[in-house]
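Submission sheet (multi-component)
Chains listed below:
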Amino acid sequence: MVESTDFFMQRLLIGLDVGGTKTAALLADVNGKALAETAVPTYTTTPEALLSTITRAVRAVLAEVRATPRQIECIGMGVPGLVDPATGIVQLAVNLNLQRYPLGPAVSARFKTPTFLENDVRTAAVGAFAYVQQMEPVQSLAYVSIGTGVAAGVILNGRLHRGHNGMAGEIGHMIVEPGGERCNCGQHGCLETIVSGPASVRQLIAAAPEMQTTVRNAGDVYEAAVQGNAAAQAIVQRVGQHLSRAIQWLVMMYDVEKIVIGGGVTRSGDPFMAPIRHELAQLRQHSPLATALLGEEKVHLMPPDYNPGLWGAVRLAVNGNR
Amino acid sequence: MVESTDFFMQRLLIGLDVGGTKTAALLADVNGKALAETAVPTYTTTPEALLSTITRAVRAVLAEVRATPRQIECIGMGVPGLVDPATGIVQLAVNLNLQRYPLGPAVSARFKTPTFLENDVRTAAVGAFAYVQQMEPVQSLAYVSIGTGVAAGVILNGRLHRGHNGMAGEIGHMIVEPGGERCNCGQHGCLETIVSGPASVRQLIAAAPEMQTTVRNAGDVYEAAVQGNAAAQAIVQRVGQHLSRAIQWLVMMYDVEKIVIGGGVTRSGDPFMAPIRHELAQLRQHSPLATALLGEEKVHLMPPDYNPGLWGAVRLAVNGNR
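Outcome: structure written.
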């Protein structure tokens, strides 16, 4: 690989998706072109261990193109928890073992560069927004993340809507089955207790205890459904019904232009989306309102080769705290 | 009544709440002080008849203080339907018998004054926002109107959130009982089919057909519940459960600072609010999340002596289309 001296002067952007298990990094030039991507295991024993994780991820992507930390123009980070983007303080991130920790300033100090952070789902919403805008000039969308947790990031007038307490889009804690399963939040029957990845697994094991050793994640549940397992099919259908309703609610509440769905559970692709599309088609069949607001082009599944969390983090680096 | 010549020079604002049955008008000075209020029956046979209705209402409030149309600085109007505030066009207002009619420009022409119009629930949300701001400096709220229809007007960052199609806040059409009663919108089991005024009446008459002649509106249902009628009590409780959940959803989705409830059905006061407050207290009991986001001070009932629709219309006159 031959590089001109110019390359060593090039300004670079780094997007980080800091997760409880792994931390991914994307290196891009200032025009947003991807140069390198990597992922390292996340260490969460102490804030210092987390900082080392981030440092390792940053050095790894820089090393891929033989760049130096001095070339970094800006860093954007998505963090799973309640964060304050204005100060860079992580108020609470259980999976990162952080509480009231100034992660933004700490990373800034380490690389001597501006750092912007945001909640991970909102960061992914920014990435989803950039993705959709490549196709059409929308101004609003809701990005629904279905994984271990369930939440939405909402873009209105081209900007993130965070809410008064930074809790806007917490659709995983909308109560959908009063008196239902107890949620970590203390409420009963939250959407998350039905449609999250772990919830699908729990439901299948409860219905078919003999599958305890073979079903480890939502992908296994969808796979079992495809293979014809009746219990898995019932769960997949139930999840689809609840998610199509959550989509209907998001649209009636926010009247956003697009709904984009992503997150680990959605990687099953068609088996995941088919029940949702079926329910929405049923709604449209008898309702002019649903036809107008929930058309076929309304809901997009994030393609598996586009990582909205990483691209959103790069956008944070480009836009700063706007 | 002795008036100085100055009075005849005073600039005046008019707020109008144009309803399917009656049209109310509020006259205020430019500082927002109320000077006169009136209501006239609404005629909807033709757009011209509606314009005459509006003219009568305006003349009536002006006459009360012996002012002339030339003193009108600006008119604000709330209209029950889908409107385009930027152009003043009413896209569809079934109860006013209007479709694609430039009501704003028509009223402007008649009184030779700027006229701003907005959907009636959003207008009331603006009025509710002004009301709450007298007490505390909030920047966001959702105003939930429970009457013949059910909808919310949402204020974010001090401004109305209208949505891409002007349909934001249509919570009456959130599906809460899949396969439930058919709604006017064509969907089944919309919130409106359970908690609206007519829905309460229908449910009580279905449960107690002998009450058909005595129960005419939601007030009668709440009155019957207070008097100990078991069927009415069950309906009141069901409405409270659904509304408390709708409030929980609004808060999880939007993370607004306040929820304000108003509209005809809420005039029963305590019997209306008690089941909602009870449900929310139950939620708080076991959930730190609900305690943080749904505290006792979160939900306000609009006092019966404050008309948010009229005051919101006056605010539209003050602020224009902002």
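Remark: The domain at 125-301 of chain A is CATH 3.30.420.40 (Nucleotidyltransferase; domain 5).
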